[in-house]
Amino acid sequence: MTTETMHRPLVGLSVVILTFNEELHLERALASVAELTKEIFVIDSFSSDRTLEIAREHGATVLQNKFVNQAQQFQWALDNAPITGEWILRLDADEIIEPDLVAEITHKLPDLPADVVGINLKRKHIFMDRWVKHGGRYPLVMLRIWRKGHGRIENRWMDEHVVIWGGRTVTFDGGFADHNLNDLTFFTEKHNKYATREAIEILNYRLNFSARDHSITAQSTSLQTATKFFIKEHIYNRIPFTVSAPLYFLWRYVFQLGFLDGRSGLVYHFLQGYWYRFLVGSKVMELERAISHLSDKHQIAAELSRLTGHTLTPEQSR
Fold it and tell me: pTM of this prediction?
């Protein structure tokens, strides 16, 4: 573990970025927040490329911790990083805070009333260097800034969110972009790993073999996030994936005008809106068959750990 002494943030904001071999993106992310703060924490999962060198060159504090999943890694950062800022910004290494949002944060953050404890940002997705504007992909309203002591990361294997308490949220309008520069091989390999983690979440919802987080509400995160979470968990995941995946793709591509995003948009909506959803369902089916003969929670957790490569902790017996 390595730490470097930092100055206090410019607008009372501290930035936390999780990394693993992010030399392609990290410098860009750090540059995008350079005018906002001098307190940046890079939480690294033992990278083997130039990630740590880049982080230190830009004055970030570097902490290293073994990676289990995004939720646990980020919560570890909140629990262990010497954060001094009044506000915390969660930023992925492949994301960018654009100049107009920098100006908005700088102008508005110091004057927010005390009852505001969270700030939603409107994320845009850049795929194959083109902005995906349709198919329900913009704006993705995400709670990414919160007052220190008023938020934590939801404990989930996939689609974890920031949850807050003790006040209300506001939404900023400035540009906030997810722009990964890797190729389609990286994209599909990443989503294959995501599919395994999401399959674990779905099976845990059905079988309750491990402790689950029930913190997502319209008050604890953005209304859009809470609504999508409810629909996915209580409606979508109960429909056979052979039906839900193609219907979801048609909803995005036709009714939400995804076809207006051009050829690269078709690639994105098909892979992320159909192939990925079908893959999740397929993995759930495969894993369900593999554990169908088990009833004990400890045995289920142990077998899923063996099959997925993730260490699952069984819920304590009641």
Answer: 0.89
